[in-house]
Amino acid sequence: MQYISSRLSDDGVPAFGFGGDYNPEQWDPSVWVEDVALMAEAGVNLVSVGIFSWALLEPSEGEYEFGWLDSILDLLHSSGIRVDLANASASPPPWFSHKYPQSLPVTATGVRLGYGSRQAFCASSPDYRRAAAALTTAIVDRYASHPAVVMWHVHNEYGCHNQPCYCDESGAAFQRWLEHRYENLDALNAAWGTAFWSQHYYSFSEITPPRLSGTFVNPTHALDFARFSSDELLACFEAEAKIIRDRSPHPVTTNFMGFFMGLDKPLDYAAWAEQMDVVSNDHYLVAEDPRNFQDLAMNSDYVRGLAGGAPWILMEHSTSAVNWQPRNIAKVPGEMLRNAMQHVARGADAVLFFQWRAAEAGSEKFHSAMLPHSGTDSRVWREVVELGAALRSISELVGSRVSDAPVAIIHDADSRWASELDSHPSTDLSMMAETRLWHDALYRAQVTTDFRAATDDLSSYRAVIVPMQYLMTDAGADNIRAFAEAGGTVVVTYFSGIVDEDNHVRLGGYPGAFTDLLGVRIEEFYPLRENETTTLSRFGVGRIFSELGRSAGAEVLAEYAEGPTAGSPAVTRRAVGSGFAYYVGTSLSETGVLELLETIAIDADLAIADSPAGDLEIVRRSNGEDTWLFAINHGASAVSVTANGTDLLTGEATAGRLELRGGGVAVIRENRTTE
């Protein structure tokens, strides 16, 4: 990211990336000059070009037309605007799908999808892979040395519309993947538990994707197919990225989608991040979510973890409404600035939008843009210009990192995939909902959090939250135990540690991998009925889940006070080595988690704020010498913030206290303390 930042200004001084997805091919060339002039007015210095232009770049197989792209890249360069150039492999053109119909993806019900939208391809299709490689080669050969190009954008939002694919090509690739993973059928049959329901396999060729069947399919079969599907798309990225890296020195990225909930099976971004030269992400608010700003913060924290704490790129977000939600509600005045500054506060060194100019045709014509349908005489345009100026005013932060994140939340793709399969104790179980519950409590307490895998180095944290990590490997459980023994505080919630990496239940009582660490033994699950709650002796009520069990050495902080689990431990605490291990056997209410967090904070030596409304966001970035405090008020009323320094957005000094208006943002360069 440092490399990109230093290439965004003519004098080489690092700057925040600012701009968006630019689609000049949708407009007459007479519009391009106006576009570039307005970009300069707004302070745009980076645009993504060519993402969905395959059909115009290759009008027929092997015949390329680059004239229009030559012109726009030259125009952008002449105005000092840098380009994140796409290899355009995200959407094969109609001629390709018509010529190679077997390349189209197939659903679990056996229906082959048509073309006419985007991402209409199967990741395992040899025809698609060959065509994408040829296109990538042609583009990078032509533009590797173009002075406008500073970064390469491979594909776009992998897996958003076409994965997993259940076609025969995917089936054959899945068989090869399984043979590589297990080496022999004895190992596969053991891992999949095929003695159940007469599912034993005698040849890898007998195995198909987990297509729709009469009832539940083998859960480990489905889990492995999720793993395979992520790997198959990653193989597409790696092949195209290699072509680029062999021919160009510029960094390569593709845009992630954070915790995107719309995917059938989200990708294993931790594995993907290892292949990125710089991590980038797309995030869109759910307009009807009253705390969507906290969801934004959680996604940014996750992406920062994928980047290893390094600065990352916000590749897409919206200036106002999107087009794909049930009710596409416009952002209120000032919300765009708050959203952008949230991403920057949590580690982004570039703020880009989809898209530059609002489209006049197509499915996304009502998606907001930097330049809206109403043109420059509009609130959105004025706020875009304001944001560009704000980013320039805080440019000294570029390259700094988020500091003081004392808590890690564990998140593993395997656990999410496994937890979202069927045949579980309750359809209300949601790893992501429980994760958000705990992140929101920490957000309200103004505690910055990182996201980490269970096997990551956790030694720098004071507390680690393990929210419904249903699948837990031995290595992950051992690492979390070692963290507690070394003085850390661990909080494990219900339905964690239940199965191993093969999706087999850990026998001997729940919570399986964490039973000894936590000092509890759960005999039986008692899921609650829809919207039912159960009274606890402390911390209010439990939701979704309750359990019958007993303490096996843990201090009981709260019991179930009613029903079949009355007297069983609901919340426990156990001293482990130099640290502590908490267990929460139900989903607490918002107030219950905050109350418990007060106790956890004492053990973990966490400083927590008294901000019950949870509307004030406080985050710091540091470069090792200077520290900058971001204060973002998502509420309607003014709040008082402890701050000593200078607000870079206004130039005003703060002497101990800052009164931050409702909806306001401040970025304070904090005064250095002297010994």
Task: Give the key terms.
single chain; Immunoglobulin-like; nine-stranded parallel sheet; seven-stranded mixed sheet; 27 strands; 31% helix
Helix and strand arrangement:
Blueprint: H1 2-6, E1 17-22, H2 29-42, E2 46-49, H3 54-57, H4 67-78, E3 82-86, H5 94-99, H6 126-143, E4 149-153, H7 168-182, H8 185-192, H9 219-245, E5 252-253, E6 255-256, H10 269-273, E7 280-282, H11 292-306, E8 312-316, H12 335-345, E9 348-353, H13 379-393, E10 401-403, E11 407-410, H14 413-419, H15 431-444, E12 449-452, E13 463-466, H16 474-485, E14 489-493, H17 515-518, E15 520-527, E16 533-535, E17 541-543, E18 545-551, E19 555-559, E20 569-576, E21 579-584, E22 587-588, H18 590-604, E23 616-622, E24 627-633, E25 639-647, E26 653-660, E27 665-670
Helix pairs in contact: 2-4, 6-9, 7-9, 11-15, 15-18
Structure description:
This protein is α/β, with parallel strands linked by helices and 675 residues long. Among the domains are: 198 residues, Rossmann fold, CATH 3.40.50; 55 residues, Golgi alpha-mannosidase II (Immunoglobulin-like, Sandwich). It is 31% helix and 20% strand. The strands form five sheets. A nine-stranded parallel β-sheet has the order 5-4-3-2-1-9-8-7-6. Strand 1, helix 2 and strand 2 form a beta-alpha-beta unit. The longest helix has 27 residues. The chain is globular, with a radius of gyration of 26 Å. The two termini are 34 Å apart. 51% of the residues are buried.
